[in-house]
Amino acid sequence: MDPRIPLIEILETASAEGLPQELRSGENVPDVMIYHDLIDQGYLMGTILSDGRRPYFIEGCHITSKGREYLVQLRQALRRERQSAPWRFMGTWIGFSIGLLLGACATSWWVHHHGLPSWLGSFLGQP
């Protein structure tokens, strides 16, 4: 899974619905470290409550204008990658096809000028 997808989901939730139900009800959130990082980078605004070791709750969380811009950038980058995915291996397939064609031509030329190798002729039942 692409590591940007959880970021996109969190930023979309923050921009559309506001806070997830867990944050509104005061429960622990499984992705609290992602929220923490997004707040530290200025993409979300909120107050982080911590037990001294790690954050466990975020209060008053909402998206910032910088977060909205970042969300647009993430969506565009993901969309570009998904659109280019079918073409990613096109060079490999073209190279494989050219190699196969050249190999067939070289083999055909060799057999035409030199005949089949004796071991292959005996294998195929030719004298």
Low-confidence parts, pLDDT < 50 over ≥5 residues? none
In N-to-C order, the SSE pattern is: HHHEEHHH
Main sheet specs: 2 strands, antiparallel
State the secondary-structure class.
alpha+beta
CATH superfamily of the largest domain: Winged helix-like DNA-binding domain superfamily/Winged helix DNA-binding domain
Strand order of the largest sheet: 1-2
How many domains in all?
A: 2
Report the sheet-strand fraction. 5-15%
Provide the CATH topology of the largest domain.
Arc Repressor Mutant, subunit A
Helix content: 55-70%
Kindly state the number of beta strands. Answer: 2
What key phrases describe this protein's structure?
127 residues; alpha+beta; 2 domains; 6 helices; 2 strands; 62% helix
Describe this structure in words.
The structure is a single chain. The chain is 62% helix and 13% strand. The chain is built from six helices and two strands. The model has no long low-confidence stretch (mean pLDDT 79). It has helices at 4-16, 21-25, 32-40, 65-84, 90-114, 118-124; strands spanning 44-50, 55-63. It has 127 residues and is an alpha+beta fold. Strands 1-2 form a two-stranded antiparallel ribbon. The relative contact order is 0.11. The radius of gyration is 30 Å and the shape is rod-shaped. Strand 1 and strand 2 (55-63) form a beta hairpin.
